[in-house]
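[recover] target loaded
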């Protein structure tokens, strides 16, 4: 396979914008999809995204940005999805034929609500895309820090090492260190689960719990995440790698974490639906919680922390009481 491939980024939110910045370090041309024509005009005019990462200057000489998704797909050999997971199916459903022979990497973290599958599983089962053409980008990489050139670590996951190495080189820079992995399933589930745990950490902070309790809670989240992933795909993997524990830590501790912010609102007393409405970005952990809970039920396994988050988000259970009961079980 010849690797002089055009790369397209689907989505012009904060992560899509950060990906374009990263790719512009090593690519002569990036195809970029935004559904918003007003946003496109502003990016071309000002070299900045008017809504996300507003201070980041975009090299518009290197981008071909369009609201015509067919144009982006047709001109790209490798597509990176940076559309929030609840909107992926709606965005891509009419383009199944065009996507069939593409190499697709998920830069989004979460589940597809229509199928209750993580993104690569959904694309494989619903779009018939072979796993060798699917991959995942993950790791502790908040877009806000990448925009400022702060050192970050990104893992490129694919069963095809040649594709992984190619994309890894295109994403590497002095401020983004990349590595490759063939553990697509493990990394993708870690990226999904960490959002659930971040919500509960946020709830805990909102309720006034301190660092001592939070450290114990995250320790138990780590253990549960490992056990959950093993129940899905029990192969040997280094969970200390940045794509697993590193991503969990940054999402639970960082002020940039939308899932933690969402949880803090709930801990401070805001009803779940109102907290969702106040968020300017999608809280993917909200959708992931339902999916993870259903998986645990189907396997007759008790993942206590996931259950607690599910009870609070979907069964209107009192967050303060649920945390108090959970705290008594931790050590």
């Amino acid at each position: 396979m010849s690797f002089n491939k055009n790369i397209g980024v689907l989505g012009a939110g904060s992560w899509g914008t950060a990906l374009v910045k990263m790719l512009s370090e090593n690519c002569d041309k990036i195809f970029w999809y935004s559904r918003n024509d007003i946003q496109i005009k502003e990016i071309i005019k000002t070299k900045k995204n008017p809504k996300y990462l507003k201070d980041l200057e975009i090299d518009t000489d290197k981008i071909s940005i369009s609201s015509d998704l067919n144009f982006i797909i047709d001109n790209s050999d490798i597509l990176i999805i940076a559309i929030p997971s609840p909107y992926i199916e709606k965005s891509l459903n009419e383009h199944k034929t065009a996507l069939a022979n593409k190499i697709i990497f998920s830069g989004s973290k979460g589940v597809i609500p229509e199928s209750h599958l993580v993104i690569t599983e959904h694309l494989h089962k619903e779009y018939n895309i072979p796993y060798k053409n699917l991959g995942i980008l993950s790791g502790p990489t908040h877009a806000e820090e990448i925009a400022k050139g702060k050192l970050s670590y990104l893992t490129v996951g694919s069963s095809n090492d040649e594709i992984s190495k190619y994309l890894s080189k295109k994403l590497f820079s002095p401020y983004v260190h990349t590595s490759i992995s063939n553990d697509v399933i493990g990394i993708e589930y870690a990226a999904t689960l960490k959002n659930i745990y971040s919500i509960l950490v946020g709830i805990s902070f909102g309720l006034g719990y301190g660092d001592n309790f939070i450290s114990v809670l995250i320790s138990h989240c780590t253990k549960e995440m490992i056990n959950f992933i093993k129940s899905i795909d029990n192969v040997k993997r280094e969970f200390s790698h940045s794509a697993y524990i590193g991503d969990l830590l940054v999402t639970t501790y960082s002020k940039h974490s939308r899932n933690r912010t969402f949880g803090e609102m709930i801990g401070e007393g805001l009803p779940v639906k109102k907290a969702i409405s106040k968020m300017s970005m999608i809280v993917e952990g909200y959708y992931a919680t339902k999916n993870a809970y259903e998986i645990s039920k189907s396997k007759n396994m008790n993942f206590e922390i996931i259950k607690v988050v599910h009870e609070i988000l979907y069964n209107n259970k009192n967050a303060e009481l649920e945390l108090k009961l959970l705290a008594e079980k931790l050590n």
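[recover] notes: The longest strand covers residues 152-158.
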